[in-house]
UniProtKB/TrEMBL annotation, chains A, B:
PROSITE patterns referenced in this protein's UniProt entry, alphabetically: HTH_MARR_2 (PS50995)
Superkingdom in the source lineage: Bacteria
Protein name from the UniProt record: MarR family transcriptional regulator
InterPro entries per record: HTH_MarR-typ, MarR/SlyA-like, WH-like_DNA-bd_sf, WH_DNA-bd_sf
Protein source organism: Actinacidiphila oryziradicis
Amino acid sequence: MTGNDLYEELTRHLSAVGSVRRKLGRILPAGCSDASATMLAVLGRHGAMRIGRLTELLGVDPSVTSRHAAQLTMLGWVDRKPDPADRRSSILRLTSEGHAQLAELSDRRSRELAARLAGWSDEDIRRLAWLLSRLRADFDAQRTGQHTFADPSEGARRPRTPAA
Amino acid sequence: MTGNDLYEELTRHLSAVGSVRRKLGRILPAGCSDASATMLAVLGRHGAMRIGRLTELLGVDPSVTSRHAAQLTMLGWVDRKPDPADRRSSILRLTSEGHAQLAELSDRRSRELAARLAGWSDEDIRRLAWLLSRLRADFDAQRTGQHTFADPSEGARRPRTPAA
DNA sequence: TATTGTTATACTCTATAACTATA
DNA sequence: TATAGTTATAGAGTATAACAATA
C-alpha cells in the first residue's frame, strides 16, 4: 500500500485550502460574493462564452452556473446576447462595470497576496498554480474504465499546460 | 503592478480546487460526510486533542468544530473524555470504529487518487502537498500590522516544515 | 429524440451571536 | 473578567430533478 500516506497528506492539505479561500473571500467588495468573483475572473481570463463553457471551466453543475450568471447579469456586470449559432443559448460577456469590478477585485487580492506570500518567489507561485491546474485537469479527464495502464498508443499525452 | 497576473492565476486555480474536492467527496462511504472525513483524518494524523486544537488545525470557527465533533461522537467514531487539566474541555480520540472508518476512507481515496494521478511522480505529489501546507501556514500567520518588511530581529522565520 | 439552459427544492458547510460553565 | 465550548440561526454554495425551448 505504498503511497497511501502520500495520498493521505495530499488530501488533508487539499481540505485545508478551504480555510485559505475563506480568508481571501473576506476582502471582497461588498455585494460581490465569492462565486461572483470567480465567475468574473473566468470571464476576464477566457473572454465571452456560453453558459455551457462556463460550466465546464467552473467545474460545477449547469444549474449553479445559470443561477450565478443571472446574479451577475442583474448586477450589471455581465451582458447576455443571443448566440447566433444556437438560439437555446446566449453569449455572456463582461460589461464595462464588470471589468471595473474585476479590476477592483484583482487590486485587493494582489495587495492581500503580496502581504501573505511575501516569502514566496515567483517560481514558487508558478509551480503551485501549475500543479493545481494539472490536478484539476486530471480530475476532469473522463475515467476511461477500470484498466490500470494507459493506452500504449498514446505516448506523451500528459498535457504540458492544462487549462492555462 | 508586477505579479498581478501571477496572483490572478493562482487565485483561479485555488478556486478550482473545490471541483476536485467534490469529486473526491463522491467516493465517501454512505453516512460519512466530507467534514467527518476531514476530522477523522486530522485526528488520525495528529492523535487525541481538544476541540480548540482541532479548530486550529481545521481552520474553521469553533462552533463548526463543536457541531461536527458531536456528530462523530454520535456515530461512535470519536470518544470524549474529560480533560483533567481543564474541566471546561474534553479530549477527543478516535474509537476503534473511528479507526476502521478512517481506514476504509483511506483505501477508497488511495484507489481513486492512484487512478487519477497515474501520471504523477511521488515527487510531484510531495511538492504540491508541501506548497499547500506552506500556503496554509502563511495565511494562518497573524498579520503583524501594515508594515511591508519583516521584523529584522527575525532572521529566518519561514517555517521549513509547516504543519507537517 | 437529444441538448441547452432554467427553476424549485433540499442538503452541506460555515460564520455570527448569545449563552453556560469553568479558569 | 477571560476563556472553552455549545446552541440557535442565517447565509452561501452546490446538486438533483423536473421542466421549457430549440436542435
